[in-house]
Structures are given as structure tokens and as C-alpha cells.
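Input record (one chain):
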Amino acid sequence: MPERPARHLLVVTTNYAETRGGVEMHLANLLPLLVERGVAVTVVYLGDGRAPWTEPSGVRVVSVRRRLDFRDILALPGPGDWRRFTRSLTAAGATPVTHVATHTRFFPLSWMGVRLARRLRVPSIHTEHGGGFVVTSSPLVRFASRVVDRTLGRRVLRGADRVLGVSTASAAFVRELGGVEAGVFGNGIALRRWLADDDLPPATGDGRRLVFIGRVVEEKGWRTFLDVVAACRADGWRGEAWLVGPGPDLDAARVYAETLGVHDLHTPGRLEPDEVRRTLRGAICVNPSVAAEGFQLTQLEALAAGASLVSYRVGIAAELADIPGAAVAVVPRGDREALIEAARADLGRPAPQPTFAQLSAWDWDQLADRYVGELDRL
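The corresponding structure, as predicted from the sequence alone:
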């Protein structure tokens, strides 16, 4: 009989197969690489309760029926369904779990995963994807999220044997909320697939478009982005302006663009990764988000695709600005005029030519090796 893997990681997460948010994309990239490195991986998540299956990558997936769902965020499994799953972990013939991983502090399933690790007497590792308390225009949601953070969230952070933050901002938030020291384990991309083509000449002047990428909601800063576009148009720039992403404010953004005299705004909604890469090539990615960004993957994608980045100090903007030769301008969060001036200055420069060495710390192959190291140290 084949020898069982020495490590069996159980990932306990709220969303997985049916959705593709930030956490889900993180898992979709990381977990197959862990399997390649000899780690057996099982994911349990809240879904439709279908029979377990194994993905082509070798990741085993278990869907526990989802109940008591609030806006696809705060969901719970049925008590009987969860009990049957946990019993299956210790049934005859089951591969013993050696580690439990959870993601993001405010999900009830993260707390349940930490508790499950204690019951199984194995170490738990929690990755925090947030960079601060939830930022939203709804006072009720702000209040409710703070209550969840200061109760359930703290228990998750303090209960895990190891906590990782996806950025220095995320690690600082872990310290603020839970009083726990977190390591930094970033998000990442398949870097070689994102890097700009060397045979394309760098764009300059009107050949450089201004691009916003993200969910079109107020806290992501679409209104400020359009203010930047209008200011650059007033200076005589006639390049393309792209507002990329879905969201409830998309129609409002189109109306606001018209009021500013920006009549040719491109609003394609959600784009596939290859289309995002082409849109970013040679562009200036303007990032006016004031949300509680833990990492904000679009910043990294922009640099890899051959765009320069003009950003508020959120997510990993400060870390990216420290890379020698990186085309990154970071201004104080919320300083609209400074963001406009930074974009104006960048329009007069040629587009950057990124290299693998500049961004290798965020390549998924290297990150996967680091994660295996984290497991081995527990």
C-alpha cells in the first residue's frame, strides 16, 4: 500500500467552490502547490452539501450544507452536518489531520476551525486577509462588524497557534485587534504569466491610459478616480480611461463621468485575468481605495503587467514602493489632490518594464515553499 503523506492540512473556510473572492483565489492558487509539495489537502466549506470530490490538482473538497446565511458572509453549517463531518475525520481509514488552517477572523467557521484543531489535538494556522475594521457607508454594518471583530474575531486570533497576515498592514491590525504577533505571508500571483512582454515598446504620453480596477463601490474610490481623469483631461491629456470591475455604483459612475465631461469612459465590468493584463499594459493604475485593504492584489497585478501604480497608502502599496526601480507613487490616504498630482507626473514618464527579480517575493511558487515551512515549524 502507498505510504500516507506525513502532512494532512485541513482547510476550514466559509466559501470555496462557488465563489471567487480574495480568500477563494488565495486558496485556489496555494492549495494545489501544497499538494505538489507532498502535503495532503482537504477543504471543508459551506455549500450545497453535495458528495465530496477530488479536484484535478489533488485537493479533496467537502461541502457541508450552508444554513443561517447573512449576505454570503456570516453563515453556519447545520449542527448535524458539521457533526457528521468532524466524526468522519477520525473514522477508520481516514487520513489523520496534522494541521488545521483558517482564513479571515470574522467568519464563524474560522472560530469553529480553531476549536476543531483543539479537539483533534493538532496545531492551527490562521491567515488574516483584512487590513482593518470594515469600512462602509452603512452605520449598522459598521457597528455589527465591530461587535463581531471584538468577540469572535479576537477569539480566532488568540486561539490559533500561528497567525499570518497577508501584509504588514494586516499584521498590524492583528496586533491591534487581538494583541497577537503575526508573521507576514502575502498573497501572490503566477508571476511569469503576468509579466509584461519584452517586445512591446513602453507607452508614453497619450498612449498611457488611466485604469481603475476593483469593485465599483464608494469605499474603493471610483469617484476620486474620475476626478483624477477629469484633472488630467483638463491638462490636455487625451488617453483612454478605464473603470474596470462590477458593482452597484457602476451606473452612478457613468453618470458622474458625464458630468465631468469624460464622455468616453470604458466600463467593461468584470474582465478575465488575461484581459486585465492587456488593459494594464503600459497604463497608470490609479488606486484611490479607502477600504480596509489587507493586501489588494490589483496593485501587484498592475506592476507585473507593466503599469505604474499611483495609490493611497493602503494594502501593500508601501511595500511595493520600497522595491528598487518600481514605478510606484504612494500618497497619504484620502489626499485627493496628491493623488491627482502623482498621476499627472506619471503621464510624463514612459511605462515601466518590470522584471521577475523585482516581484519574486510575491510569486506563488516561492510563497508555497514558505507556507510548507510554516507548517513544519508548528
